[in-house]
Amino acid sequence: MQQKLKTYPWVWLLWLAGFYTVWLYLVLVLGYWPEAKAHWPIAVAMAIGSYAAGATPMGGGTVGFPVLVLLFELPATLGRDFSFAVQAIGMTSASIFILARRQPIAWAMLKGAMLGSLIGTPLGIWFIAPYIPELWIKLVFAVVWASFGILHLYRVNEIAHHSGMTEINEKWDFNIGCWIGLLSGAAVAAVTGVGIDMVLYTALVLLCRTDLKIAIPTSVIIMAFTSVLGVLVKNLTTGMQSGVFENWLAAAPVVALGAPLGVYIVALIGRKPTLLVVAFLCVMQYLWTMYSEHDHLGLTGMLLSALAVILCLIGFEQLRCWGKRRNALPKAAKIYPIPQRKPPQSIGSSTDAI
Length: 354
What we know:
The protein has about 350 residues and is an all-alpha fold. The chain has one domain (about 10-335). It is built from 13 helices and 2 strands; from the N terminus they run H-H-H-H-H-H-H-E-H-H-H-H-H-H-E. Helix 1 runs antiparallel to helix 5 (about 75-100) and helix 5 (about 75-100) crosses helix 10 (about 210-240).
């Protein structure tokens, strides 16, 4: 029996109208159009990045960071702050789109992650990120994303076939979410501008064996929350890096549509092809980083980076083993199915496909 869910596409359209009104005011009334026009390359790059942000558990900074840092050779700190700024628009737009469509969310773990991020992200911005060298920021990004990409290259079939969500109790999920938000907000998102979404997603699909239709929208929302929080904390305390605003002006109007478009288009073509493409790009950016920084790293540094990737993969496999054991306990765990919808008639009522 199908359960028809009422959707609210007008909420997302209202958000878009408000955002573009503000952006047009900035570029036309306040005269920032030359700055936006001069930074058009980042807008082109984020057209791809924003699609990946909405269609996968990887924020738009997954493309924005390496483009600015590796291709344009700008400081890693600028790439981090730009990731926060551009995701505050793109991921927020995608989150409103997801919520307006009433997509299923892992609410217990998401609420815990938001609480943890609320504490961990500011602490990381104030007490961890300022002391991380530029090279280490690049390496943290390269290692985490490479391990995530490799995981999907060899586990994507298993991940894509999960159904519903294994849940022992909401308190347990909430507590796990708190630790994920606290640790990844402080040690990953505060340092690179991205990543908390990938950590939460990984816990959902490996530990809770969660359906991609639940895990990816949940990861989008936590990255939106953390990005907005990061922008607020940095603007009110440490300040954003020079150049972030100009790049943001060029990219923001693209990601405001691109990320929700990724949410919608992936429902038509499926998530697996997109995940494989982005996973491949994650591995390529790691190789690119190793090549561009080989003089600074030396053979020892490159070997330690490869070891860090292996350790991340071992951690992922351990989560997967725990998840399989949890799933084998039918008396303690429940499998929560996804409410089915009728075939989509409009953007507001479309159904995700694996």
